[in-house]
TrEMBL record:
<dbReference type="InterPro" id="IPR004776">
    <property type="entry name" value="Mem_transp_PIN-like"/>
</dbReference>
<feature type="transmembrane region" description="Helical">
    <location>
        <begin position="289"/>
        <end position="314"/>
    </location>
</feature>
<keyword id="KW-1133">Transmembrane helix</keyword>
<feature type="transmembrane region" description="Helical">
    <location>
        <begin position="370"/>
        <end position="390"/>
    </location>
</feature>
<feature type="transmembrane region" description="Helical">
    <location>
        <begin position="335"/>
        <end position="358"/>
    </location>
</feature>
<feature type="transmembrane region" description="Helical">
    <location>
        <begin position="249"/>
        <end position="269"/>
    </location>
</feature>
<dbReference type="GO" id="GO:0016020">
    <property type="term" value="C:membrane"/>
</dbReference>
<feature type="transmembrane region" description="Helical">
    <location>
        <begin position="402"/>
        <end position="425"/>
    </location>
</feature>
<feature type="transmembrane region" description="Helical">
    <location>
        <begin position="79"/>
        <end position="100"/>
    </location>
</feature>
<keyword id="KW-0472">Membrane</keyword>
<protein>
    <recommendedName>
        <fullName>Auxin efflux carrier</fullName>
    </recommendedName>
</protein>
<dbReference type="GO" id="GO:0005783">
    <property type="term" value="C:endoplasmic reticulum"/>
</dbReference>
<feature type="transmembrane region" description="Helical">
    <location>
        <begin position="12"/>
        <end position="38"/>
    </location>
</feature>
<feature type="region of interest" description="Disordered">
    <location>
        <begin position="173"/>
        <end position="202"/>
    </location>
</feature>
<keyword id="KW-0812">Transmembrane</keyword>
<dbReference type="GO" id="GO:0055085">
    <property type="term" value="P:transmembrane transport"/>
</dbReference>
<dbReference type="Pfam" id="PF03547">
    <property type="entry name" value="Mem_trans"/>
</dbReference>
C-alpha cells in the first residue's frame, strides 16, 4: 500500500512546529544572556530549580490527575520500557565511546533523550493539527486523551531523570568515581558546622540564611540534627563495605522528580485526596482553586525555563567563539552517532516491538495513546537536562558549551522525528483494528 503524501506532510508539519517552538525558545535564552538579563551563575541556579522544583510540581499535577486505582496499572509497562531502552542505549553508547574514542558525554547524549519538553510540545502540536484524531477511540474525550499521553511521557521523564542523575556523574567522570564520596561526607559535616556556628550563636555571623526562629528554639533543633547525623553515620560505618556502596548508590535515585512522582501517585490513588485536589470546588475539590492551580503554574515553567538555560549556555559559547577562545568542540563523528541512534535506530526497534506487545499480548492496557506514546518514547533529540547535570557535577566550561552547541544542532534537525511519528501513528492505527 502506497502512503499518501498528506500522511507524511501533516505529521512533519506538527514535528516542525514543535521543533521551531523549541528553537525560538533557545533563541530567547540567547537574547537573555546577550542583554545581561541572566548571568551564567544565575542560569545554573535556574537549571537546578527546574529539576528540583518545577519538574516535581509538573509530575505531581499530571500524575495526580491521571492516576487512579483502575488505571494505575497501565503505568507499570512504561516503567519497565523506560528503564530497558535507556540502559540498552547506555550500554550501546559505552561500547561506541570506547571503540570510536568519543567524548564521555556522548554516552549520556545517546542514552537519555528529551522526555519532557519536546514530547509535550509535540503532542500539543499534533493535537492542534488533528493528527491524533485517528487514534483516539470513538467516544473518548480528546482533551483527556491528551492529558493521558502527557502523563505517560512524564512517567518516562521521571525514570530518565532518576537514571541521569544517578548514573550521569559516574559516566562523565569515571576516573573520579570515588572522589565525591569523601567530599560529600566532609561537605555535609562542614556545612552543618558552619550553620551551627553562624546561625545559632548570638554573636555569630548573620546573613540571609540566618534563622528567624528564637535562639532558644534553634539550639535544641540543632542538637537533635547533630545527634541524628552522628548516629546515622555511625550506623552506616558499621555496615559492610558492599552494603555501604549499595545504600549510597540507591540514595542517588532519591531525587526530586522521583519524590514528585510518588506524591502524584499517592494523590491519584487515594480517592479522598484526588477529590480534594482535582474536583471542582463545589464538588469537594477544596484544594483545586488555590493549591492545585499553584502546583500547575509552577510545573508549567519547567519546559520553557530548561530550554532558556540552554540558550544562555549557547550564548556563552558564541561569545567565546567570536573572541577566538576555546568554546567547546563537537566533532562530526559524535553528532552522527547520536543522531543516527536517536532518530532512526530506536524508532525501527520500538515501533514493531510495542506493536507486537499491543496486538499479541495483554501486557499493555487497551489505550491507543499509551501505545503511541511508548513507540515515541525512545526517539527524539538528546535531553536538555544534560545541561543541568554538567552544572551539578561542575564540568569544565568547554564541555558545557560543547553540549549546548550539540543540543542546539539536535533541535535544528528535530523535524526528522516526523518519520517516527508517522510510523507510530500508522502502527497504532493498525493495532486498534486488530
Amino acid at each position: 500500500m502506497v502512503m499518501d503524501t498528506s500522511e507524511l506532510v501533516v505529521p512533519f508539519v506538527g514535528a516542525l512546529q514543535a521543533s521551531i517552538s523549541v528553537l525560538i525558545t533557545i533563541f530567547f535564552g540567547v537574547l537573555t544572556a546577550q542583554f545581561n538579563l541572566l548571568s551564567t551563575q544565575a542560569a545554573k541556579e535556574v537549571s537546578r530549580t527546574c529539576v528540583r522544583m518545577f519538574l516535581p510540581a509538573l509530575l505531581i499535577y499530571k500524575l495526580g490527575m491521571n492516576f487512579d486505582k483502575d488505571t494505575g496499572i497501565r503505568y507499570l509497562p512504561i516503567l519497565f520500557w523506560s528503564i530497558s531502552y535507556q540502559l540498552v542505549s547506555l550500554a550501546f553508547g559505552a561500547v561506541a565511546c570506547r571503540v570510536f574514542k568519543l567524548p564521555n558525554w556522548v554516552k549520556l547524549a545517546v542514552s537519555f533523550n528529551n522526555t519532557t519538553s519536546l514530547p509535550l510540545l509535540l503532542i500539543q502540536s499534533l493535537s492542534t493539527t488533528g493528527v491524533l484524531d485517528v487514534i483516539i477511540p470513538e467516544g473518548d474525550d480528546a482533551s483527556k486523551a491528551l492529558d493521558r499521553a502527557e502523563s505517560y511521557f512524564l512517567v518516562n521523564a521521571m525514570v530518565s531523570n532518576s537514571l541521569t542523575f544517578a548514573l550521569g556523574p559516574r559516566l562523565l567522570r569515571p576516573s573520579d568515581e570515588d572522589a565525591p564520596d569523601g567530599n560529600n561526607k566532609g561537605g555535609e559535616q562542614e556545612d552543618g558546622e558552619e550553620e551551627n556556628g553562624m546561625e545559632r550563636e548570638p554573636d555569630g555571623i548573620i546573613d540571609e540564611e540566618t534563622s528567624l526562629l528564637p535562639q532558644r528554639a534553634v539550639h535544641p533543633i540543632n542538637r537533635v540534627e547533630r545527634r541524628g547525623y552522628k548516629r546515622t553515620m555511625k550506623w552506616l560505618e558499621s555496615l559492610p563495605p558492599w552494603a555501604q556502596q549499595f545504600l549510597e548508590f540507591s540514595y542517588q535515585f532519591a531525587n526530586a522528580p522521583l519524590l514528585g512522582t510518588i506524591v502524584g501517585a499517592i494523590i491519584g490513588l487515594t480517592p479522598p485526596l484526588k477529590r480534594l485536589f482535582f474536583n471542582d470546588s463545589n464538588d469537594g475539590g477544596y484544594f483545586h482553586a488555590w493549591l492545585t492551580t499553584s502546583i500547575q503554574n509552577v510545573g508549567d515553567l519547567f519546559a520553557t525555563m530548561q530550554i532558556i538555560v540552554v540558550g544562555v549556555k549557547l550564548s556563552q559559547s558564541l561569545r567565546k567563539m567570536k573572541a577566538g577562545e576555546d568554546s567547546g568542540a563537537v566533532d562530526k563523528k559524535s553528532m552522527a552517532f547520536v543522531f543516527l541512534t536517536r532518530f532512526f535506530i530506536w524508532p525501527v526497534i520500538s515501533i514493531p516491538l510495542i506493536y507486537a506487545f499491543a496486538t499479541k499480548t495483554s501486557v499493555l492496557d487497551s489505550d491507543p495513546m499509551l501505545w503511541f506514546a511508548m513507540m515515541l518514547m525512545s526517539s527524539g533529540p538528546s535531553a536538555m537536562i544534560l545541561v543541568a547535570l554538567t552544572d551539578t557535577i561542575g564540568s569544565p566550561e568547554e564541555e558545557k558549551m560543547a553540549i549546548a552547541k550539540f543540543l542546539t544542532i539536535s533541535y535544528a534537525i528535530t523535524p526528522l522525528i516526523c518519520f517516527a511519528v508517522v510510523g507510530s501513528l500508522k502502527a497504532t492505527e493498525a493495532a486498534t483494528r486488530q
